[in-house]
Specification:
Largest sheet: none
Helix content: 55-70%
Radius of gyration: 10 Å
Number of helices: 4
Length: 53
């Protein structure tokens, strides 16, 4: 399980969709979609820290 899978599990655990998760952590919808759904990018430090907070 890589970091993208783990973030997807967090989204599912919180009963959110990608757009609502993005709003909740304060990151753009397309950024989250690029990491979780399309797997184009790996999340950066700021992305991870926003999830933690």
């Amino acid at each position: 399980m890589d970091i993208c899978d783990r973030i997807n599990e967090i989204i599912k655990h919180e009963n959110l969709n990608i757009a609502s998760f993005a709003r909740k952590i304060g990151i753009g919808d397309q950024t989250v979609r690029g990491v979780v759904a399309m797997r184009r990018n790996k999340p950066g430090f700021d992305f991870i820290m926003k999830i933690v907070h």
